[in-house]
Amino acid sequence: MLVPFESLPNSARVWIYQSNRPFTEAEAKEVEQKVADFMQQWTAHGAELKGSFELKYRRFIVLAIDQQHASASGCSIDASVRFIQQLEKEYNVDLLDKMNVTYKTGEFIAHKPLLDFKKMAQSKSVSGKTIVFNNLVNTKEEYLDHWEVPASESWHSRFVK
Question: String of b and e for 139-157 (b: at least 16 CB within 10 Å)?
Answer without folding.
Answer: bbeebeeebbbebeebebe
